[in-house]
Amino acid sequence: MAKRIVNLIQRTGAEEVILLGDIKDQILGTSRIVMSEISSFFNILKKRAKRITVVPGNHDAGLEKITDQSIQYASSRGMIYRDGNTRIALLHGHAFPVKDAETADILIMGHRHFSIRVGRKVVPLWIRGSVKDKQIIIMPPFNEFLSGVFEATEKSSNSYVSKILSSGGNFDAFMLDGTKVGGLNKLEDIIQSEA
Q1: What's the alpha-carbon Rg for the chain, to the nearest Å?
Q2: pTM for the predicted model, two decimal places
């Protein structure tokens, strides 16, 4: 994961990295091996990025104890990032968001780990859409240990992401290369008919 992020930093010239949670796989507790891997992961990133911020996800309990003070932490409810006049809410998506998230122009979040199975391969998906005039982006899982397979029940949890997905907006799914897979509702119908 660190190498992939470093490649993105080099390609884009980014100085700041904001991670939207689920850095680690274990929800409760962290083994010594995982602690060592997380430490190495952040050490690699610190050499390339001027600032690293983590918006903790539901898998990230105890992460602050593993990292040093150079890593910044936002609330688990997310943060607002400004890009010129555009306000972007950056959330993990498991918890209800910071107060100003509802008024942001763009919501970017993770948490749901949308993926589909193509043959034997699990393919992560971007979910993009809008609710009213707000652009919504649900990121694919970056941590490959967290890739699940999309199921029709994905929208049935109590998470903030689930609330957004059931709010009546139009959402499309895309593969990492930008190939449009189809509308989220269409994917649910296909998966339900195959079950």
Answers
A1: 17
A2: 0.82
Under a CB-based contact definition with an 8 Å cutoff, are residues 57 and 89 in contact?
Answer: no
In 3D, which of 168, 23, 164, 156 has the Cα closest to residue 107? Answer: 164
Contacts of residues 175-179 at CB distance under 8 Å and 24 or more positions apart, as own/partner, are: 175/123, 175/124, 175/125, 175/126, 176/123, 176/124, 176/126, 176/140
Domains identified in the chain, total number: 2
- Note the pLDDT tens digit of each residue in 160-188: 887 888 877 789 989 888 989 888 776 65
At 50, is the pLDDT very low, low, confident or very high (cuts 50, 70, 90)?
A: very high
Q: Which domain holds residue 80?
A: 76-195
pLDDT tens digits along 13-28: 999 999 999 888 767 7
Q: Are strands 16-19 and 51-54 parallel, antiparallel or unpaired?
A: parallel
Average pLDDT value for residue range 53-78: 90
Rounded-to-integer distance, Cα 146 and Cα 24, Å: 9
DSSP assignment letter at 184: H
Last residue of a domain, one of 74, 90, 123: 74
